[in-house]
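// run 5 | inverse folding | seed 20
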């Protein structure tokens, strides 16, 4: 049953094209593959994009970590995951270099190859495309994986697009983990609250207190704010994360955040830099 569910034939590929899979940009982009379409060897993720305002379909932990970094970077404008490559072009490349084009194992139908991320980024004042394939480092020892990566590399080379492979060894784990902790706190408007604007109001009060409480640890500060503002425990911590992800307050996300150290590592956005921003 699982095999039939995930198999591709020409009819299914035609339906995906008819649905507009792989088209659009920003909030309107539709990935070629969603988490429901393929079996994943790891955990899948569906984070809400800060830049696009839509749900992104990520098929592994490594994809999710890279997504967090791309979504946080000020140089990245748009992120399109599971981006389809023109099948006729990839088949021609495979034939030219003498390797087998990917096929469905059950139906033997030539598959539509995808690139994990196609992004619009700003470089030296110009908007350019970059394509990134995400793979566990140990998978790059597999000859068949290398063959498929070579098809992808040549495809984007012919398009004049900067392509590269990102492995788990390339991803700064602390940075990705820190962004992941705050990522889903970007919006507080949709949370259940006593009245509209309640959390925004409390967040603003907390932001004003941060510079005056650097003698406290984050745990102490949040406990005091919860008590002073009459909020349930851990509400202030959620609002601190909201303030960081909305860049009202800043900290160096490349470093391990010590919640039991004096709060000197957290400061108003106007008083310091925001840490790593490149993509």
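// decoded
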């Amino acid at each position: 049953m699982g095999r039939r569910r995930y198999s591709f034939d020409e009819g299914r590929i035609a339906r995906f094209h008819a649905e507009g899979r792989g088209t659009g940009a920003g909030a309107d982009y539709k990935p070629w593959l969603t988490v429901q379409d393929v079996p994943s060897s790891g955990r899948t993720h569906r984070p809400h994009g800060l830049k696009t305002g839509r749900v992104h379909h990520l098929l592994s932990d490594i994809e999710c970590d890279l997504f967090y970094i791309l979504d946080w970077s000020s140089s990245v404008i748009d992120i399109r995951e599971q981006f389809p490559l023109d099948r006729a072009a990839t088949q021609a490349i495979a034939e030219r270099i003498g390797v087998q084009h990917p096929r469905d194992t059950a139906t033997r139908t030539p598959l539509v190859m995808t690139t994990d991320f196609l992004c619009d980024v700003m470089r030296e004042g110009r908007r350019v495309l970059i394509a990134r394939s995400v793979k566990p480092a140990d998978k790059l020892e597999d000859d068949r994986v290398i063959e498929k990566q070579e098809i992808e590399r040549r495809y984007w080379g012919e398009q004049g697009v900067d392509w590269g492979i990102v492995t788990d060894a390339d991803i700064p784990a602390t940075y990705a983990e820190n962004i992941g902790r705050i990522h889903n706190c970007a919006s507080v408007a949709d949370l259940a609250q006593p009245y509209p604007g309640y959390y925004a109001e409390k967040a603003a009060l907390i932001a004003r207190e941060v510079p005056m409480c650097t003698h406290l640890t984050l745990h102490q500060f949040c406990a005091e704010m919860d008590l002073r503002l009459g909020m349930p425990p851990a509400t202030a911590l959620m609002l601190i994360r909201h303030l960081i992800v909305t860049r009202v307050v800043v900290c160096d996300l490349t470093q391990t955040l010590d919640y039991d150290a004096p709060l000197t590592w957290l400061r108003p956005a106007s008083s310091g830099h925001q840490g790593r921003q490149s993509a």
